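Final report, closing paragraph on structural work. Over the funding period we assembled a curated collection of sequence-structure pairs, and we close with a single example.
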Amino acid sequence: MVDLERIKAESVAYFRALDENATLRHHFRHADEEGGLWYIEAVPDRGELIVIKQAELTSAGQLHRYSWEYLEDEHGCLTDQAIDPEEDPLEAVTVDEFQRVWAR
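Its predicted structure, as stored:
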């Protein structure tokens, strides 16, 4: 049987270590089909960009935030997929723009 608590603890430890030890951070925005905006903070790890924070600002104005401190809820979760700005429809944003949304 899978130990879900152990898996969650390992995920939290991984994302927390990436966040606390990051020396380079990238920030992006993505518009979804429903008119919402996604703000992403990602850091490099083993040749990939790993999302460590993501905020969804819905078209209705609701904000959902995910990070190692809050991995998931009934609305969504922190992605476990690496991103590729060359392939994914992402727009680079400043750290200030990301922080304005994250701190709302």
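The radius of gyration is 14 Å. The first strand starts at residue 26 and ends at 31. We thank the funder for supporting this effort.
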